[in-house]
């Protein structure tokens, strides 16, 4: 704590770091609260892959197909018809990318229908997201 006991007009050379610490604690709290929201919220068992996969499409729309065959578009459950409508809206942006999260136990036909809906909407950039295998 800096105190000026005299009347001389010299500048105080100490920096008060308390406001800086307060700001950093607020930023840390915001980061801790928002970090879990950046992951896929629909629980899906992804297939394993040995390729070097990265999450480059942070702004991509995502479709999740659960084990029961339920469809989710950006974490909101939809029917096949609603999915087609949402994909048509998303396709209006030329750079739209779609990530498909499909559970390992989903029938191939369900995933093929999702892929066909993406292609019918005119979206050419889509990826299947997989969980990386652990290297032994």
UniProtKB/TrEMBL annotation:
The organism's place on the tree of life at top rank: Bacteria
UniProt feature coiled coil, ranges: none
Location relative to the cell: Cell inner membrane; Cell membrane
GO molecular function: transmembrane transporter activity
Cross-referenced Gene3D superfamilies: 3.30.420.270
One GO cellular component, as annotated: plasma membrane
Pfam families named among the record's database cross-references: ExbD
Single GO biological process annotation from the record: protein transport
Protein topology in the membrane: Single-pass type II membrane protein
InterPro entries hit by this protein: ExbD (IPR003400)
Key words of the record: Cell inner membrane, Cell membrane, Membrane, Protein transport, Transmembrane, Transmembrane helix, Transport
Keyword match Cell cycle: no
Transmembrane segments: 20-38
Functional summary from the UniProt entry: Involved in the TonB-dependent energy-dependent transport of various receptor-bound substrates.
Family named by the database record: Belongs to the ExbD/TolR family.
Subunit structure as annotated in this protein's UniProt entry: The accessory proteins ExbB and ExbD seem to form a complex with TonB.
PANTHER family in the cross-refs: BIOPOLYMER TRANSPORT PROTEIN EXBD, EXBD MEMBRANE COMPONENT OF PMF-DRIVEN MACROMOLECULE IMPORT SYSTEM
Protein name: Biopolymer transporter ExbD
């Amino acid at each position: 704590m800096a105190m000026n006991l005299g009347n001389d007009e010299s500048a105080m050379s100490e920096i008060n770091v308390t406001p800086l610490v307060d700001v950093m604690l607020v930023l840390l709290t915001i980061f801790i609260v928002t970090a879990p929201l950046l992951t896929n919220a629909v629980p899906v068992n992804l297939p394993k892959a040995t390729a070097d996969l990265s999450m480059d499409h942070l702004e991509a729309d995502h479709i999740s197909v659960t084990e029961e065959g339920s469809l989710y578009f950006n974490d909101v459950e939809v029917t096949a018809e609603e999915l087609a409508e949402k994909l048509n809206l998303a396709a209006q942006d030329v750079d739209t990318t779609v990530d498909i999260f499909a559970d390992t136990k989903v029938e191939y036909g369900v995933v093929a229908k999702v892929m066909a809906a993406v292609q019918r909407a005119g979206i050419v950039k889509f990826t299947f997201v997989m969980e990386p295998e652990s290297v032994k």
